[in-house]
Automatic annotation (TrEMBL):
PANTHER family (alphabetical): CUPIN TYPE-2 DOMAIN-CONTAINING PROTEIN, OXALATE-BINDING PROTEIN
Protein name: Cupin type-2 domain-containing protein
Ribosomal protein in keyword set: no
UniProt cross-references to Pfam families, sorted A to Z: Cupin_2
Keywords for this protein: Metal-binding
MF annotations from Gene Ontology: metal ion binding
Amino acid sequence: MFVSDVASIPVIQLEGPGIIKAAKQSLIGPAQGWDGWSMRLFTLSEGGQTPRHSHPWPHINYVVGGRGTLFLGGKEHPIQAGSIAYIPGGEEHQFMNVSGEDFSFICIVPAEADK
């Protein structure tokens, strides 16, 4: 069993090619008893983005705040709080903040993908 609050989870500022103003919090995973899976919260500040990339694992996303664009399937899709997305493994994708506020989304992946 695990009960906590997002405010108590460490925030990791991400760095690397194509990453701009992005932070990650690893909310629930094997360490909290969810074997095989990890739920993370990503926050992109104004002008922030993830790199355009692909990887072998799928992920499930739920937008919790703000507005953004998801590049997926060769197209840009507007997304906002309440939007959901499934990204198959191997599919090129990118999240971009297009608003003047934080853009936050939950991302669920296999545990080995949360490095």
